[in-house]
Design brief:
Layout lengths: L8 H27 L4 H8 L3 H8 L11 H12 L3 H15 L12 H37 L13 H26 L3 E7 L3 E7 L3 E7 L4 E6 L2 E6 L5 E5 L5 E2 L7 E7 L2 E7 L4
Antiparallel strand pairs: 1-4, 1-6, 2-3, 2-5, 5-8, 6-7, 8-9
Helix pairs in contact: 1-5, 4-5, 6-7
Length: 279
């Protein structure tokens, strides 16, 4: 969308009021913290939120805070100050919406193998439909010939029940499709992925491009996931998790708290890993 210069004074006034109210919110919270003689360092230690993110929150600079964590960090900050959440959280959400654009990104990652499987699947469907089409044509020809036969002929022509023919063909098609599906599943081998929490970390995982799950994994806990083709991850901090494939060894994903924006893991290991670049 492209904005024009035809903004009204009312629109400009509402934007300045929003900036003023957000500035007042963060100034008020900073004053409350100073009145309670609390340092950001002590709040960081108590809430386990990194100091640099607390400073950014108190300055109202949400662009320096990971988007998946900013609301959780603000609640932890309010709790450390001993303030009621309902009094300040709604103001924070209004300010957050003015900074961050609501967006939903769907990433489709089709491998060459997936394209080949879809091509084969389409070819099989065509092979299933072709016999039905041929039978329908034959039935139509037979019906036309039947109508042209002289009704005075002594030989009696038995009519073909089209519904019975189609029903038998559909049964045969379903039986063939079921056997093919079972054969494909038997040819795939499911593999295991173990995930160990090194620090309390949130992550989202998509198994086999279909099933999506979210976890908040505490330090020391281990979970096991299973898939036939691959896993796709969004991870809140790289140094919070380590992973192990089947009988391998645990490997750390990073050395600092950088967000892993996208990571693809298949049965051979990590295929792709992209970190969120600092702004």
């Amino acid at each position: 969308m492209e904005w024009t210069d035809d903004h009204t004074d009312e629109d400009q006034g509402s934007g300045s009021d929003l900036n003023q109210s957000s500035s007042d919110l963060f100034k008020k919270l900073q004053e409350i913290r100073k009145q309670k003689k609390l340092s950001l360092e002590s709040i960081a230690e108590a809430s386990r939120v990194q100091l640099k993110y607390l400073k950014a929150l108190e300055e109202g600079n949400l662009t320096k805070v990971p988007e998946v964590y900013d609301k959780l960090f603000f609640r932890s900050y309010l709790k450390a100050l001993g303030l009621p959440e309902e009094e300040y959280y709604e103001q924070f959400l209004v300010y957050r919406r003015s900074i961050r654009l609501d967006k939903t990104t769907t990433v489709f990652n089709f491998s060459d193998g997936s394209r080949e499987n879809r091509r084969k699947f389409n070819q099989k469907n065509l092979l299933y439909l072709l016999p039905i089409f041929v039978v329908v044509i034959l039935i139509w020809v037979l019906l036309r010939n039947t109508e042209s036969i002289d009704s005075r002929a002594s030989a009696q022509v038995n009519e073909i029940d089209v519904r019975d023919v189609v029903a038998r063909l559909e049964q045969r098609q379903h039986a063939t499709a079921d056997s093919d599906t079972a054969a494909v599943r038997d040819s795939l081998r499911q593999f295991n992925l173990q995930i160990r929490g090194l620090k309390r970390t949130w992550f989202r995982v998509i198994s086999d491009h279909r099933d999506t799950s979210e976890y908040m994994l505490p330090a020391g806990n281990v979970i096991t996931l299973q898939a036939y083709s691959c896993f796709e991850f969004l991870i809140g901090r790289a140094d919070g998790l380590s992973i192990k494939l089947d009988d391998g060894i645990f490997r750390k994903l990073g050395t600092d708290s950088t967000v892993i924006q996208y990571m693809l893991v298949d049965s051979t290991g990590i295929v792709t890993k992209r970190f969120l670049s600092p702004r």
